[in-house]
Each structure stands twice: as structure tokens, then as C-alpha cells.
Amino acid sequence: MRTRKLVKDENNKIHLVWFGSYGKNQNGTAKFAGTVDVSKPYGYEDNGKHENYSTLAEGIRDDLIQRLSLIKGELWYNIKLGIPLFNKIKKKGLIDSYIIKEVLSCPDVTNIVKFKSYVQNDRNYSCEILVNTTYGEIKFSI
After folding, report:
1. What is the largest CA-CA distance in the chain?
2. Would you say residue 114 has pLDDT above 50?
């Protein structure tokens, strides 16, 4: 599996990596994902390319987080992908079933080992998931 790389900034906010970077520093320079050698042109990796993609277990984790962050109908070229949008969470089990279905449809995911979800104030849904994959166990939360 190969997917766009996700990185967390100093405030724990998740960013999608494009062309090796995921935002700007205070001085206006680009924030680069992975190891950046400033002595090389444009901060390229040793292989001469920016680090744009994650693979193996990291790729599956990044793919799952991206799939579960997508609202159904939001992706113009495949409106069937994503989780339906709910104004209020009246039935946590319904949202759990959408999340579980999406996780199990991901390539290289073999099964869900642990799933725990929470709802706060009828609006804030979060969950912690542990899955088995072809590359071992992966734990993540949304």
C-alpha cells in the first residue's frame, strides 16, 4: 500500500503532505516531512525526491485516517467514499458500523482487534482502533 503521507505538527494537528511539505514556518520557509538535508537543492531526500508517500504499516494507518476523515459525497471523483455526516449522534452504534465497514474495506486490513468509541455532548465522536494488517498490528484514533 502506498498513500499520501500524514504528519502531526507541534500542536498535534494532522496535515497531508504535498510535494514534501505540509505548511510554512514562521520565517516563510516550507515545513518538510521526514529528513531534510538543507545542503541539497530544495531539501530533497537522499534519493533526490521529497517524502510524499507512506508505505507498509504507516501507509495503511495514513490511508485509514484519510478514509475515516472523509464525508460521504465530499470526494468529487468518487462520491461513494466516506462516512455520512450526522448533525447529532443519537445512535453511536450506527456510526460505529460505518467506521467498522470502512476499516474492513481497506486493502491489507485483515481484522479489527480492538474498537472503542466515545460520544461527548451528542456531537463529538471519537474512537480508538487496533487492527491486524498484512504488516502487523496498527493502532490509531480519530
Report:
1. 55
2. yes
